Amino acid sequence: MIRIAIFDDNSERRKSLSLLIGTSDTMECVGAFPDCRDVLKHVAVTTPDVILMDINMPHVDGVEGVTIIRKQFKHVKILMQTVFEDNDRIFASIVAGADGYLLKQTPADRLLECIEEVHAGGAPMTPTIAHKVLRFVGRTHTSGAVAAEFKLTDREQEILRLLVDGLSYKMIAAKCDISYATVNTHVSHIYQKLQVASVAAAVTVALKEGLV
After folding, report:
1. 3 state SS of 156
2. Most Cβ neighbours (<10 Å): which of 25, 89, 100, 176?
């Protein structure tokens, strides 16, 4: 059972997310909070596997909340949610340690899929956000030359490019005609070579270094 905590200042959204999570046989909502003022206490008490984090909240917002959480809880997965495609906040969230970034308009069934994906080690990112990030960051190197510096194989570079495009692990598996487990293995190798600990960080490195 995937344990999920919600941080969102909108009470109706907290309620609707709790109800949505309750419809899943593999998930449970263990807490819902309006901001991150007592985030360490809330995370310690509820012990979530995944946190749904609103980025814009009063008092202590989502970006600061992620920063605080990461100082003590290294392994909990954090999925950011916002109504804005804000470049600065996207990067701030990723740098702080978020594992994925979705728009609040994401359909309910896709949101549940993203929770499962981030729990499994993926980093779901709304495609429009992924492409916005790709356009925003400079493309200063040729992908082949820089990929060689990081010793990425052709398959690893292909999978990294698909991650940047916002594809889920399942979609990558289908597109590359490989198993989900094989995608996980390739992503683990990408982590090691880029010296990162999450897909979100891998995407950031890929974009900044011109790997895709």
Report:
1. helix
2. 100
- Residue 102: closest CA among 68, 65, 54: 54
42/158 Cα distance (integer angstroms): 39
Matching residue, tokens 């979609």: 171
Cα distance between residue 193 and residue 186, in whole Å:
11
How far apart (Å, rounded) are the C-alpha atoms in residues 147 and 151?
6
CB 77 within 8 A of CB 119: yes
- Identify the top-confidence range among 34-38, 98-102, 191-195: 34-38
Helix (H, G, I), strand (E, B) or coil at 123: coil
pLDDT above 60 (res 49): yes
CA torsion through residues 155, 163, 122, 72, sign:
positive
pLDDT tens, position by position, 180-197: 889 888 887 887 777 665
Task: Please tell me which residue, 113 or 165, carries the higher pLDDT value.
Answer: 113
Residue 152: left (phi > 0), alpha (psi -120 to 50), or beta? beta
- The span from the CA of 17 to the CA of 8, in Å, is 10
Tokens of 153: 């194989």
Return the half-sphere exposure (C-beta side, CA atoms, 13 A cut-off) of residue 47: 1
Judging by DSSP bridges, how do beta strands 27-33 and 100-103 pair with one another? unpaired
As a whole number of angstroms, the longest Cα–Cα distance in the chain is 50
Q: What is the crossing angle of helices 169-176 and 154-164, to 10°?
A: 130
Q: What is the dihedral of CA 179, 115, 204, 84, to 10 degrees?
A: 140
Q: Side chain identity at 87, as an amino acid letter?
A: N
